[in-house]
Write a structure and sequence with these properties.
Layout (H helix, E strand, L loop, with lengths): L2 H36 L3 H16 L1 E10 L4 E7 L8 E3 L3 H9 L3 E3 L10 H7 L6 E7 L5 E10 L6 H51 L5 H9 L9 E12 L2 H7 L2 H21 L3 E5 L3 E7 L6 H22 L9 E18 L4 E8 L1 H12 L4 E4 L1 H7 L3 E9 L8 E9 L27
Parallel strand pairs: 10-12
Antiparallel strand pairs: 1-2, 1-6, 2-3, 4-5, 5-6, 7-9, 7-10, 8-9, 10-11, 12-14, 13-14
Length: 447
């Protein structure tokens, strides 16, 4: 065999070796692609990618640096051999900074001879960089989001072929980063929606609980615009209904408290439906009584609705008395209604340690309603003169004459309402000379 043929055979063997090496690299590059498409968790993904990058490039170490826009720094997302050791460098310094700024790859086979190389990283990590190949990470929008580095090639120097392979890997890495970011965005958005659902459910539960303690008009105001709830009271035409249990003190004193409580909850729970159907608002409650407001700004015929509510409560009371047999016998009610101008809004009590608000109606109209109710016995509905004037065409009533009310200086006419009648069958009271235009008249004294 002559020398020429031997050189040709050596050349072919070298070409064959080079081809086999390139094929093996392409095979490993495909494996990187499979790894990226199979794993979405960035913390699991990138250690795998870096290890395979080292195999493909034949290097000792590789790293991914991402750009932090807030600090204008490049930080090490992952670097082989530096577990749990984050490195941050200025995006304007070092090889990584240069590649990031110019969006061009850079190969240095003698790193320390290039003034752009930042020796501070080696000083921090204890790893000496002999040679380096660095390529930019370009996302689908054409923006550079970081750099990929391969350090210290084990055999020979970095070549153009190395640059081609590392650039191909960087494309995979950029895709993986974008997929991971999108995945995190979706996951965070999903968690945000889930948190919002939990918050909404909690707020709904809170609202449902709070509406048990406040009038529904106040709940509606707060729900629509919390800042619109004024602390000022406003004059308004209202009808006030007072209902309480007759002889409640005697019943409480002589019977088991649990049974008494059952009676109160049983009766008043039944009355709630009557109140709600006619647009009333339970304003105040006590152990044996409730105060209900019917307001002119929400109900057109508020006085008639107050009377209708009271008559429905009387019927409910009869039904419950037939159904339950308490030791003290049936329950009788005091029921009174007064109509007129009241001041509706917030009563605020404030001290250095706490603040308490109550939404209520105040004024003589509420006092008269309570006093009129106190006159009533055996679940009879008594109303004052203005209420009577407003509903006289719609109800059947008996005029009881002028009555003295506790702590009220002037006697006023009181009416016993027995039912709602058709307009053609109405009865008129013969005490017109005693009917005033308002419950108040000149009743300047009250308590």
């Amino acid at each position: 065999m002559n020398i020429t043929n031997e050189k040709r055979q050596i050349g072919r063997r070298q070409e064959d070796f080079s081809l086999r090496e390139q094929n093996e690299r392409f095979h490993k590059l495909c494996e990187v692609g499979k790894t990226i498409t199979a794993e979405i968790d960035i913390h699991v993904l990138f250690p795998l990618v870096m290890n395979q990058t080292n195999h493909i490039m034949g290097t000792q170490r590789s790293s991914v640096f991402l750009y932090d826009e807030k600090t204008d720094e490049l930080w090490s997302l992952v670097a082989t051999g530096m577990e749990n050791c984050e490195i941050r460098i200025s995006a304007k310094e070092g090889i990584g900074g240069w590649v990031f700024k110019h969006k061009e790859s850079l190969s240095l086979n003698e790193a320390y001879r290039d003034p752009r190389f930042n020796v501070g990283v080696d000083c921090k990590t204890g790893f000496k960089t002999e040679n380096i190949l660095c390529v930019p990470l370009i996302n689908s929008g054409g923006h550079c989001i970081g750099v990929l580095q391969a350090l210290n090639k084990k055999k020979g120097k970095f070549t153009d072929v190395d640059n081609t392979f590392l650039s191909a890997i960087s494309d995979y890495v950029a895709i993986a980063l974008e997929n991971a970011r999108l995945y995190d965005d979706v996951k965070n958005y999903s968690k945000s929606l889930q948190d919002q659902v939990i918050i909404n459910e909690s707020l709904t539960k809170l609202k449902n609980q709070l509406t048990k303690f406040v009038p529904h008009s106040v709940a509606n105001i707060v729900e629509k615009d919390p800042d619109s709830l004024s602390v000022e009271k406003h004059p308004m035409e209202v009808s006030v209904l007072f209902v309480d249990i007759q002889n409640f003190s005697v019943i409480t004193e002589n019977n088991d408290q649990r049974m008494v409580n059952h009676m109160v909850e049983n009766h008043f729970s039944s009355y709630l439906k009557c109140i709600h159907q006619h647009g009333g608002e339970i304003n105040e409650t006590s152990g044996d009584g409730i105060m209900v407001i019917f307001k002119s700004d929400t109900i057109e015929n508020y006085a008639f609705e107050a009377v209708s509510t009271a008559l429905d409560i009387i019927e409910e009371n009869k039904r419950i008395n037939r159904e339950f047999n308490y030791p003290w016998g049936g329950v009788d009610l005091h029921i009174g209604i007064s109509s007129g101008e009241g001041y509706v809004g917030i009563t605020r009590m404030k001290s250095t340690v706490m603040e308490r608000w109550t939404y209520t109606a105040s004024g003589l109209v509420t006092i008269l309603a309570a006093r009129i109710g106190a006159l009533s016995k055996k679940s009879k509905l008594y109303v004052g003169p203005k209420t009577y004037n407003m509903v006289r065409e719609q109800v059947e009533c008996e005029c009881l004459g002028n009555r003295t009310l506790k702590n009220v200086s002037k006697k006023i006419p009181i009416y016993h309402v027995t039912g709602i009648i058709p307009l053609s069958d109405k009865k008129e009271c013969s005490f017109d000379d005693m009917i005033g235009s308002s419950d108040q008249g000149d009743l300047s004294k009250n308590r």
